[in-house]
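User: Design a sequence. Structure:
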């Protein structure tokens, strides 16, 4: 019997890349199920996208921790609430898709090598930025190519073990919006491939480096 891997998705924006995962599940390209979609923003379209596909959607409000003054403690308590939802839904692999929060050290240790993040550049270049800001910086730097990176999350910012990357060429008349569209296609390709490799047990991490078993 084929094992179905349970995926939890964390997102703060539109969740465009999640659609590629849903399509890959529907076409049986990957043996997976999206068990829950969680957002820190109540109005994030990723939650609406989840509801349209009859997926469980959960909003976790940071305001419920407003009585905690210490920033790191607040981050950890928020992440513990996220963890409760993930565990309740049997999540085995976490995808951060446009998730506009940094994880606490507690959360990263709890799910070591089980959190995949998609970043809209060829890391380590342009680490730390998010969404359109990254594409704007790429264009400002005069780059001829950029791309997308799928990596495991660790306690650093965008510096965890790289799983897959895909290059995207930049046209002379490129804007940050057109570049975003092109990079998102690359993101979707490597997210699906990353899930496929993970559920087949072909991703190994040693000394902060990923080895893909052929």
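Assistant: Done.
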């Amino acid at each position: 019997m084929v094992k179905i891997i349970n995926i939890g998705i964390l997102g703060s924006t539109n969740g465009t890349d999640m659609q590629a995962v849903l399509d890959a599940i529907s076409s049986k390209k990957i043996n997976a199920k999206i068990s829950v979609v969680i957002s820190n923003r109540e109005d994030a379209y990723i939650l609406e996208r989840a509801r349209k596909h009859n997926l469980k959607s959960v909003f976790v409000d940071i305001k419920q921790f407003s009585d905690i003054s210490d920033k790191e403690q607040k981050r950890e308590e928020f992440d513990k609430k996220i963890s409760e939802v993930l565990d309740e839904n049997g999540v085995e692999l976490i995808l951060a898709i446009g998730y506009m929060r940094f994880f606490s050290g507690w959360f990263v240790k709890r799910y070591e090598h089980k959190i995949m993040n998609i970043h809209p550049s060829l890391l380590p270049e342009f680490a730390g930025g998010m969404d359109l800001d990254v594409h704007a910086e790429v264009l400002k730097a005069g780059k001829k190519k950029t791309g997308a990176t799928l990596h495991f999350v660790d306690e650093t910012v965008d510096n965890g073990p790289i799983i897959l990357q895909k290059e995207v060429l930049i046209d002379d008349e490129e804007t940050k919006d057109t570049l975003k569209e092109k990079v998102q296609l690359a993101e979707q390709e490597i997210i699906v491939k990353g899930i496929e490799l993970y559920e087949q047990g072909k991703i190994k991490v040693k000394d902060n480096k990923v080895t893909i078993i052929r």
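The radius of gyration is 17 Å. The mean pLDDT is 94.
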